[in-house]
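Work Package 3 (structural annotation) set out to generate three-dimensional models for the target panel prioritized at the project kickoff. During this period the team completed the workflow that converts sequence records into discrete structure tokens, so that structures can be stored uniformly alongside our sequence database. As a representative example, we reproduce one entry of 459 residues exactly as it appears in the project archive.
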Amino acid sequence: MSPPTPSFLLFFSLFAIALSFADSQSFVGVNYGQTADNLPPPEATAKLLQSTTIGKVRIYGADPAIIKSLANSGIGIVIGAANNDIPSLASDPNAATQWINTNVLPYYPASNITLITVGNEVLNSGDEGLVSQLMPAIRNVQTALSSVKLGGKVKVTTVHSMAVLAQSDPPSSGSFNPALRNTLNQLLAFLKDNKSPFTVNPYPFFAYQSDPRPETLTFCLFQPNSGRVDSGNGKLYTNMFDAQVDAVHSALSAMSYEDIEIVVAETGWPSSGDNNEVGPSVENAKAYNGNLITHLRSLVGTPLIPGKSVDTYIFALYDEDLKPGPGSERAFGLFKTDLSMSYDIGLAKSSQQNPPSTSPVTPAPITSAGWCVPKAGVSDAQLQNNIDYACSQGIDCGPILPGGACFEPNTVASHAAFVMNLYYQTFGRNQWNCDFTQTAKLTSQNPSYNACNYAGGST
């Protein structure tokens, strides 16, 4: 049998995207923190969530009002046992049974509790006693679930910071801190046996703060860039999120646990911060979270985990005004506490665009006028970077290849115009998808010529 054609593969991937839009996108979640004194009632929050395409919510404890408010919503719920719960859960199986009887049984299955996180970033807490108690606590919670026939229906895990890795760059070299090996061996064996995920908190925001160069910012914000080649395997990375996730995958593979699912328990970008902080802004937060969601919806996956989206919980649902630390810690919210959007990243069901067309060259007409084209005076080098980036994201760049309808004129500028517009039309027709590091603009004049048909226009 001959291999599938690129057009067939594009058709299949876009068909998969269309299916994912049929209901809430299960891979897009949000963290619902409560370190604030001005939050709306849980019932109002539940209605807000149901007006979005958010499919999952993670809370840091087991607040009964929140769990109850999400009953019969279909939204997946992650609940947590706090770090200070771990000693009792570890030492007394009855404490674990009581925890399940109090926090799960009264609400399940009407409230769709899918995962219990035992502790948050325990392995890097510096508390050796707590680290030694983590696995006994996890095992006791799992036993308590199994005793009420919820083993396998509700999973159990713990959440890690990226500091659990000793090496992460390049992604193929990812490895865990050797000092944690004993606990990790036990944990990974448990996760494999129970088909539970490895949950981690990657933050490109912090990576940018440690390396605040313009090229690092575009890499972290999923904006067009020349990418970074992994010297270990030759794979091209066009964003920091994929690089961090794949570093975790490599670390798991190095310990022969490459089949364990990775879940991103937290990631996000603050919309404001203190004057001495690098990176916080509404523009950057909108770009990171908006482009992250676009990336997840594309189903492209990462270079080492292609063809599927990593379940990702964005931090956070609301700003939390009582959080300690720098100003950015209190400014990660996607929504304000009056239930209005902090900025629009296309989560509202009412504003959800139609999924991309299954045509490899001409997606269905859009409801707003415009094509995305390069600005005048942009260098060929920058335009080539835009081509490389757009074509790495799964769009069909065949028309600009020799023999394609848009190959002539054979110039970087002409080819860039076609693929930049196709990227914009395919990935949501949002303003930030026609930015390309401020080298692009929207036009109402159709750039199509001869047989080269540019997607877009107006109905």
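Residues 1-24, 352-368 have pLDDT under 50 and may be disordered.
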